[in-house]
Amino acid sequence: MRVVILGSGVVGVTSAWYLSQAGHDVTVIDRESGPAQETSAANAGQISPGYAAPWAAPGVR
């Protein structure tokens, strides 16, 4: 089976590797020149709930 993966971050590259090991013909497409150039490298997708004020904090209305 021919498979196209959009994005060469951690998930895209890992998916491509596993699919190729399973015998699929895999093509990875990314707008950057190499793997892990955006969210995987810069960690821009990180969610930091520790920096959010809790709803039950004093002074929160």
TrEMBL record:
<dbReference type="GO" id="GO:0005737">
    <property type="term" value="C:cytoplasm"/>
</dbReference>
<dbReference type="GO" id="GO:0008718">
    <property type="term" value="F:D-amino-acid dehydrogenase activity"/>
</dbReference>
<dbReference type="GO" id="GO:0055130">
    <property type="term" value="P:D-alanine catabolic process"/>
</dbReference>
<protein>
    <recommendedName>
        <fullName>D-amino acid dehydrogenase</fullName>
    </recommendedName>
</protein>
<dbReference type="Pfam" id="PF01266">
    <property type="entry name" value="DAO"/>
</dbReference>
<keyword id="KW-0285">Flavoprotein</keyword>
<feature type="compositionally biased region" description="Polar residues">
    <location>
        <begin position="36"/>
        <end position="46"/>
    </location>
</feature>
<comment type="pathway">
    <text>Amino-acid degradation; D-alanine degradation; NH(3) and pyruvate from D-alanine: step 1/1.</text>
</comment>
<comment type="similarity">
    <text>Belongs to the DadA oxidoreductase family.</text>
</comment>
<keyword id="KW-0560">Oxidoreductase</keyword>
<feature type="domain" description="FAD dependent oxidoreductase">
    <location>
        <begin position="2"/>
        <end position="55"/>
    </location>
</feature>
<feature type="region of interest" description="Disordered">
    <location>
        <begin position="33"/>
        <end position="61"/>
    </location>
</feature>
<dbReference type="InterPro" id="IPR006076">
    <property type="entry name" value="FAD-dep_OxRdtase"/>
</dbReference>
<dbReference type="InterPro" id="IPR036188">
    <property type="entry name" value="FAD/NAD-bd_sf"/>
</dbReference>
<keyword id="KW-0274">FAD</keyword>
<dbReference type="GO" id="GO:0005886">
    <property type="term" value="C:plasma membrane"/>
</dbReference>
